[in-house]
Design goal:
The chain is an alpha/beta fold. 40% of the residues lie in helices and 19% in strands. The longest helix has 30 residues. This is Fe2OG dioxygenase domain-containing protein.
C-alpha cells in the first residue's frame, strides 16, 4: 500500500490518509462524496459533530459494500448545542449508526472549561469500549501539558492545521507529539494551492511536479507524508481522490523537501518589497504634484500659497521616509488632519496578508476597530482611487477574518459593478405581499397620546459622562404595561412570514411583525416625547464622522415584549452560538434618520439583557440583569417606508478578490430584519445607508439567548488568562505624569497585549505583529491614589471602554468599607463598571475574611464588577475564604520573582489546582533592587543568547511559570521591550538555572540592609550597656 498505516500508541492501527467531511454538506450529495472516497481507496472517514453530517458519513459507510471493520471512523466532540462529552458521544454513535467509533477526539482545547476533567471523561469512554482510541485536535503545547498531568491514556492523535506556510510555527507542538508517541494528523494540507495560489511555493512545487510527473496536490501530500504526518483532506472529484492515494508512492528528495520548507520565508519578503514600491510611488506622486503646482505661481485654488504647499509636501515626504514618526504623540493633531491614507492602507494589507497566511482570526473587538478605522477615512470628497483603497482594505479584512462569508454569486444574480468601483450593488431586497383585504381597528393617535403621558424618564446620563462624550444626554424611558397594546393573532391582517436574505449568511427578514397602526403609534409617541440628537464630541473617528440619527431609548414593558416574542418565536432560530433563544431584549433604541443622517459601515457588538428593577423606589434601570443571557442577533424593526433611500446595506467579500458585494434591504413598515452579531465569526458588516428624502424610523434591539453550556467566559480565571501582561500604576506619581505614562503604555501596546495569548504558549512573531487584535489591561488601586489619573488616561486613549481591562483594589483607604470604596473607585476612574476588583491584603478583610468576601460577591451580583479576586493571600487565607464562598476568586495577585519563587511554589501549585489565576507583581525586583545577586549570571547568559535585556528575560521567566505579569515603567522604550519579551523562548536549562540561583537568595548587602543591620547592632549594644549599668557592672 502506498500509505502505510500508523500503529497508534494504544496498539490500534489507523490508515494514514483520511477523507474529511468538513464543508461537504449534509444532503444526499455528501453521502455520494464520502462513498466515492471509499471507492477511491481512502478507508479512513473523518467527521465531527459541528460538521453536521455524521449521519451522511454513516450512511456512506454502510452503503460502501465493505465490512464495518475495514473502515476507520473518526469523529469529534465539538460541544454542539452545549452538550457534554458523554451525551455528545452517544449522539454521534446514533447519528453514525455504528456500534463503536475507532477514534474520538476533543475538537479544540477551548471547548474545555477544565482540560484535565475533559480528558478524564474521554478516558471513561475508552474504558467502556465504545471507542477504540481517543485523541485531541488543535491542542497546543500548554494544553497537552495540562492533559498529561492527569492522563492514564496518552492521546493517540493530535489533529492540527499543517501545511508549508505554518510549518515553522508548528515545530514546538510537532516535536512534543513525537516525543510522547502522538501521531500528528494534518488537516488542510493543500492550502498553499487552494487558498494561496501564486505564492512562493509555486516555483519549487512546479519543479517537483515536472520532474515526477505528478500534480501539485500530490506533491503537497507527499511533503506532509515526509514530515511523518497523516493528512486529512477531501475533494468532490473522484479522479483527485485517486490521485491523493497515488501520492503515497511519491518519493521527494531532501532537496525537494528543503525547497518547500523554506518557500514560505519568501512570502513576507515579497509583501515587504511591494510595500516599499508603494511607499516610493507615494513619495514620487507628492513630488510630482508639487513640481507641477510650483509652475503655476500665486495661490492654488485661491486658498493655498505655494510656499505652504512646499512645506506640506516636504513634511509628507519626510513622514513617508520615516514612518516611525507617525506614532509620536506630538503628531497626533497632524495625523488626524492629514490621515496619511496610503501608508495606512499599505500597512493594513501587509498585516492582513500575513494573518491570512497564518490563518489567524482576531477577536470581535479588533474586527470592529479595524472596520471603524477604515471607515473613518471614507468621505464624499475623496477621489475614486482613494475610496477604492479603503474598500480594498475592508475587503481584505473580511476576507481574512471571515473567509466563510465569501459569496458564491450565481450567473442569475443581479449585482452590478460600475467601472472603476470595488462595490457590486444588488437590487434592494424586499418581499411585498400586497394589500390585505382585512382591516384592523387601532387608534394610533389615541395610543400615542396616552403613551406620551406615561413614558417616564428612568435614567439620565449627562452628555459629558457618556462614552464617548456627547453634546446631549442619554435618557432612558420606560412604559407601564399595555402602554402600546398589540393585537392578538386572530385579529391581525396577516400572519408574519420569514424570508432569507439572498447572499447574506444568517440574515433574514420577517414581514408583518407589527401592524402599520402599531408602528404609527410608536413613531407618534416618540415624536411627542421628543427624540434627542446624537453628536459625539469624542470617541472613534467613525463615530465622529457618522451623521447619527436622533433617538429615543425605551425600556419596553413586559407585556409588549412577551406579545411580540410570541408572535415571532416560531420564525426565530431555536439556538444561536450554542445558546437557547430566550426572548427579545427590552432595551429599544428608536432612531429617526433624515436626509444627511447615516450610520457608517460597522459591525454590531453583543448586548446584555436589560431590565427594570421594580423592587426599588423609584424603579431603576439594570443594564445587565442576567449574566447568563446574551445576544448574538440584531433585531431591526422598520416602523415606516414612506421615504427614499435608507436601506440597511450588508457588505460581503465576493468571489473576486478586492470586490465587495453590497446587498441592501429595503425597509417595509412592520418588517423586522434579523442578522448575526457579537462574534468575530459570522457578524455582518453593514450600514444604515443615507436617507434621500423623508424620514426613516427604525427600532434596534436584540434577540436574547440563554447559554445552557458551562460558560468559559463567565470564569474570570479563564478570561484573564488571555492577558499575560498588565500595566500597573503603583509608584507612578499623581497628576499629569500619571496620565501621560498610562497613555504611553496604551499607545505602545499594553492596549494590545493579547500577543501573549494563551500565557503558557510562546507565539510566532507574526502573531505578535498582529497584536491590535487583542485587549488591554491597566492595574491600579485605591491606596495608589492615582485612580483618577488612570481613568483620565484611559478615556483619552481613544480606545473603547470595552477594549481596556481595568483592575483596582479595595485598600481600606480612609477607613471606608468595601461598598463605599467601590463607589469612590468608579467615580475616580470615570467608569460604570470595573473588570476586576481585588481585596488588596488579607488583613484588610474586615471584620473577617468570609464577611468581606460576601460583600465582594454582592458587588459582583450588583453588576458593579465583572470579576472579583484577592491580593497577597496565602493558602490558609484562601482556605478560610473558600469555606463559605459562593464565588471562587478569579485572581490572586502576589509577588513573584526568582528570589521568592521557592517560597511561593506551594502557593502557585495550590492556585493552579483551585483554578485561580495568579498575577505576578514586582517581577523585575532582581534587576531593580538586587543587581549583582546570584540571579544576574543566568539571566545575563540567557539574554546574551537571545539578544534580550535582563528585564525581558525575567518577564519571559515569569511567563514560563504561568503568571499574568504586572509591571510598569515611565519609559516608552522599556514598555515596548516588555511586549517584545513575549517572543522569547527560554530553554529548560535556562529556567532551571534561574530557579536555582533565585533559591540562593540575594546574598548581597544593599544600602537598606546595611542601615538595618547597623541599627540592630547599635540597638542591641545600647540595651546591653543599659542592663550592665543597671546591674552595676562596669564594661568600659
Amino acid at each position: 500500500m502506498p500509505w502505510v498505516p500508523y500503529t497508534l500508541n494504544d496498539g490500534n492501527v489507523m490508515p494514514s490518509i483520511a477523507y474529511g467531511t468538513w464543508r461537504t454538506g449534509k444532503d444526499p450529495e455528501a453521502i455520494d462524496f464520502a462513498r466515492q472516497a471509499i471507492s477511491a481507496g481512502i478507508y479512513h472517514i473523518d467527521t465531527a459533530q459541528n460538521y453536521k453530517n455524521e449521519a451522511e458519513a454513516g450512511t456512506a459507510i454502510r452503503e460502501c459494500g465493505l465490512p464495518r471493520e475495514k473502515i476507520f471512523v473518526t469523529t469529534k466532540w465539538s460541544r454542539l448545542n452545549g452538550l457534554d462529552i458523554a451525551t455528545s458521544f452517544e449522539n454521534s454513535l446514533k447519528d453514525l449508526n455504528v456500534s463503536y467509533i475507532d477514534l474520538y477526539l476533543i475538537h479544540g482545547a477551548e471547548l474545555c472549561d477544565d482540560i484535565p476533567a475533559c480528558w478524564k471523561e474521554m478516558e471513561k469512554i475508552k474504558d467502556s469500549g465504545l471507542t477504540k482510541s481517543i485523541g485531541v485536535s488543535n491542542f497546543e503545547v500548554a494544553d497537552l501539558e495540562q492533559l498529561f498531568s492527569v492522563a492514564r491514556y496518552i492521546p493517540t492523535v493530535n489533529q492540527i492545521l499543517f501545511h508549508p506556510y505554518v510549518y515553522e510555527e508548528s515545530v514546538p507542538i510537532f516535536n512534543l507529539c513525537k516525543q510522547r508517541g502522538i501521531v500528528v494528523q494534518a488537516y488542510s494540507p493543500l492550502i498553499p494551492i487552494t487558498k494561496q495560489p501564486g505564492g512562493p511555493l509555486d516555483r519549487p512545487i512546479g519543479a517537483i511536479v515536472e520532474r515526477l510527473g505528478a500534480s501539485t496536490d500530490q506533491v503537497l501530500l507527499a511533503w506532509a507524508k515526509s514530515k511523518d504526518t497523516a493528512p486529512v483532506t477531501n475533494s468532490k472529484k473522484k479522479e483527485r481522490l485517486e490521485g491523493y492515494v497515488r501520492a503515497g508512492d511519491l518519493a521527494l528528495t531532501p532537496e525537494d523537501i528543503n525547497a518547500i520548507d523554506t518557500g514560505p520565508e519568501k512570502v513576507l519578503s515579497q509583501v515587504v518589497k511591494k510595500v516599499k514600491q508603494d511607499e516610493l510611488s507615494v513619495v514620487c506622486s507628492v513630488e510630482t504634484a508639487a513640481a507641477n503646482l510650483a509652475q503655476s505661481g500665486g495661490m492654488i485654488g485661491g486658498l493655498i500659497y505655494e510656499d505652504e504647499l512646499e512645506t506640506t509636501t516636504d513634511t509628507l515626504i519626510m513622514l513617508a521616509n520615516n514612518p516611525s514618526l507617525i506614532s509620536l504623540k506630538a503628531l497626533k493633531p497632524f495625523k488626524t488632519a492629514v490621515h496619511d491614507y496610503w501608508r495606512r492602507h499599505v500597512d493594513a494589507l501587509v498585516l492582513l496578508a500575513e494573518m491570512a497566511i497564518r490563518e489567524q482570526v482576531p477577536k470581535l473587538g479588533a474586527l470592529q476597530r479595524w472596520v471603524r478605522e477604515c471607515d473613518a477615512v471614507l468621505s464624499p470628497k475623496m477621489s475614486k482611487q482613494e475610496e477604492n483603497r479603503v474598500w480594498q482594505v475592508l475587503d481584505a479584512i473580511l476576507r481574512t477574518t471571515q473567509p466563510e462569508m465569501i459569496a458564491q454569486a450565481s450567473a442569475s444574480d443581479e449585482g452590478a459593478l460600475e467601472a472603476g468601483s470595488r462595490l457590486r450593488w444588488y437590487t434592494p431586497f424586499t418581499v411585498d405581499p400586497g394589500l390585505s383585504s382585512r382591516k384592523v381597528h387601532i387608534d394610533s393617535d389615541s395610543i400615542s397620546s396616552s403613551a406620551a403621558k406615561v413614558l417616564v424618564p428612568l435614567q439620565t446620563t449627562p452628555g459629558p459622562e457618556r462614552r464617548p462624550p456627547n453634546k446631549h444626554p442619554a435618557v432612558i424611558y420606560f412604559s407601564p404595561d399595555n402602554t402600546f397594546p398589540l393585537l392578538p393573532s386572530s385579529e391581525r391582517t396577516r400572519q408574519p412570514t420569514r424570508h432569507e436574505l439572498p447572499g447574506v449568511p444568517g440574515a433574514f427578514i420577517i414581514n408583518d411583525a407589527l401592524e402599520v397602526p402599531e408602528c404609527e403609534a410608536l413613531v407618534k409617541a416618540a415624536e411627542a416625547v421628543g427624540l434627542i440628537p446624537d453628536e459625539p464630541i469624542g470617541g472613534s473617528a467613525t463615530q465622529l464622522s457618522s451623521v447619527l440619527a436622533h433617538n429615543l431609548i425605551w425600556l419596553a414593558d413586559t407585556t409588549f415584549i412577551r406579545t411580540l416574542y410570541q408572535r415571532l418565536v416560531h420564525l426565530l432560530p431555536q439556538t444561536v452560538h450554542g445558546g437557547a433563544v430566550k426572548g427579545i431584549n427590552s432595551r429599544f433604541r428608536l432612531y429617526r434618520y433624515r436626509p444627511g443622517a447615516l450610520y457608517r459601515p460597522h459591525i454590531d457588538g453583543a448586548w446584555p439583557s436589560s431590565a427594570l428593577n421594580s423592587t426599588t423606589n423609584p424603579p431603576t434601570y439594570v443594564y445587565d440583569s442576567d449574566p447568563t443571557v446574551y445576544s448574538r442577533l440584531t433585531f431591526l424593526i422598520y416602523l415606516n417606508d414612506d421615504f427614499d433611500g435608507g436601506c440597511t446595506t450588508f457588505f460581503l467579500p465576493s468571489v473576486t478578490q478586492g470586490i465587495l458585494e453590497a446587498r441592501p434591504v429595503k425597509p417595509r413598515t412592520g418588517t423586522v430584519c434579523v442578522f448575526p452579531h457579537g462574534a468575530a465569526k459570522g457578524s455582518l458588516l453593514h450600514e444604515g445607508s443615507g436617507v434621500v428624502s423623508g424620514a426613516k424610523y427604525v427600532i434596534r434591539t436584540e434577540v436574547l439567548q440563554r447559554d445552557t453550556r458551562p460558560r468559559v467566559s463567565t470564569s474570570p480565571a479563564i478570561v484573564l488568562s488571555s492577558r499575560s501582561k498588565a500595566f500597573g500604576t503603583w509608584k507612578i506619581p499623581l497628576g499629569d505624569t500619571t496620565i501621560n505614562q498610562v497613555d504611553q503604555a496604551i499607545s505602545v501596546g499594553f492596549s494590545h497585549i493579547g500577543a501573549f495569548d494563551p500565557p503558557l504558549h510562546l507565539l510566532s512573531k507574526s502573531k505578535f505583529v498582529s497584536t491590535h487584535a487583542q485587549l488591554g489591561f491597566v492595574d491600579t488601586a485605591q491606596s495608589y491614589r492615582n485612580e483618577a489619573e488612570a481613568g483620565k488616561a484611559i478615556l483619552e486613549s481613544g480606545l473603547a471602554r470595552d477594549d481596556i481591562f481595568i483592575t483596582t483594589k479595595f485598600s481600606g483607604v480612609d477607613g471606608l468599607d468595601i461598598e463605599t470604596s467601590i463607589k469612590n473607585s468608579l467615580k475616580n476612574l470615570g467608569v460604570k463598571h470595573i473588570d476586576l476588583y481585588l481585596i488588596h491584603h488579607p488583613r484588610l478583610a474586615v471584620p473577617d475574611i468570609p464577611t468581606a468576601w460576601r460583600q465582594m460577591e454582592g458587588l459582583k451580583d450588583a453588576g458593579l464588577v465583572k470579576s472579583i479576586g484577592i491580593s497577597n493571600f496565602e493558602i490558609e487565607h484562601i482556605e478560610t475564604l473558600l469555606s463559605s464562598a459562593k464565588v471562587t476568586p478569579a485572581v490572586n495577585q502576589i509577588i513573584l520573582h526568582p528570589y521568592v519563587y521557592k517560597r511561593q511554589a506551594p502557593l502557585l501549585e495550590y492556585l493552579n489546582k483551585k483554578g485561580i489565576v495568579f498575577e505576578a507583581y514586582s517581577p523585575l525586583i532582581p534587576v531593580t533592587q538586587y543587581p549583582g545577586g546570584p540571579v544576574d549570571k543566568p539571566v545575563k547568559a540567557a539574554g546574551k543568547r537571545l539578544g534580550a535585556t535582563d528585564d525581558q528575560v525575567l518577564l519571559a521567566w515569569a511567563k514560563v511559570k504561568g503568571a499574568v505579569v504586572l509591571t510598569s515603567s515611565s519609559k516608552k522604550e522599556r514598555l515596548e521591550g516588555y511586549l517584545q519579551a513575549g517572543d522569547l523562548v527560554l530553554t529548560d536549562d535556562e529556567v532551571k538555572a534561574i530557579d536555582e540561583a533565585g533559591a540562593q537568595g540575594t546574598k548581597i548587602l544593599t544600602a537598606r540592609t546595611v542601615v538595618r543591620r547597623t541599627a540592630a547592632v547599635l540597638f542591641a549594644g545600647a540595651v546591653g550597656l543599659g542592663i550592665c549599668s543597671y546591674l552595676g557592672i562596669n564594661v568600659l
